[in-house]
Design goal:
Layout: H1 3-10, H2 14-45, H3 63-79, H4 85-88, H5 96-112, H6 133-157, H7 164-194, H8 203-222, H9 231-234
Helix pairs in contact: 2-3, 2-8, 3-5, 5-6, 6-7, 6-8, 7-8
């Protein structure tokens, strides 16, 4: 049996298919989370307003959905092994397994360290104040590291395949995540003070949404749902 035929046969094994399913599951949650939070808040609590950030939905009727989605992402990322380090990286950079474990821990940090809610953040949809600023700082740190790790997946790890079209899309998604992080930082420390009227447009929520969509598209593509091709034949058959 030729090497190519062996790869095709191995790609049909259940344990190989499972890591493609994990990628798709992570991508679907990433793309759908902002939409579910918006529509769920509207349907369940008649809240038409957009919260200032995705994290603020923790303090709304959608708290369980927010935490549950992040826990699901963390579970899938922890279970995701990808390829061995020697197969993915020759320069001692973290491989899929280690990056997935870090991303899982960061996602749990985002879920269980709520964002700060002060009097200036109160809206009819917010259930109450959350004045623990130290916990809020931890939340911001976990969120920053989480998005950085997702960008690392897209730019460094996912571009190891031979499909140039997919690699371009992975890089676009990764750099989109990085750009969103940078713009959020600039907004919070500069633009928010210079142009307070921008707050009415909820820029952080939409930038976070764009970053999550980029993350989701990247994982859906890696899961062979978008730009579907015969990538399974060229990638090593690897169980989760």
């Amino acid at each position: 049996m030729t090497e190519k035929n062996t790869s095709v046969a191995e790609s049909k094994l259940p344990e190989v298919i499972s890591y493609l399913t994990l990628r798709k599951a992570v991508g679907i949650i990433g793309v759908s989370l902002p939409i579910v939070l918006l529509t769920g808040s509207l349907v369940l609590a008649n809240c038409c307003e957009v919260q200032g950030s995705i994290s603020k939905y923790y303090h709304t009727v959608m708290q369980n959905v927010f935490v549950g989605a992040l826990c699901a992402i963390a579970l899938f990322l922890w279970a995701y092994k990808g390829y061995e380090k020697k197969e993915t990286e020759k320069k001692s950079l973290p491989g899929d397994n280690l990056a997935g474990n870090f991303a899982a821990l960061f996602a749990l940090g985002v879920a269980f360290f709520p964002t700060y809610i002060g009097p200036e953040d109160l809206t009819p949809c917010i259930t109450g104040l959350y004045l623990r600023k130290v916990i809020g700082y931890f939340h911001l740190g976990w969120a920053f590291l989480f998005f950085l790790t997702l960008a690392y997946f897209s730019i460094v790890l996912f571009t190891k395949g031979r499909n140039k079209k997919k690699n371009r899309l992975f890089r676009v998604c990764g750099y989109t995540i990085l750009a969103c992080i940078l713009i959020i930082i600039v907004y919070k420390f500069l633009l928010k003070k210079l142009f307070p009227q921008l707050q009415d447009l909820d820029p952080i929520f939409w930038l976070e949404t764009l970053a999550l969509w980029a993350f989701g598209v990247s994982w859906l593509t890696k899961g062979n749902l978008l730009l579907r091709d015969n990538e399974q034949q060229s990638e090593p058959a690897k169980a989760v």
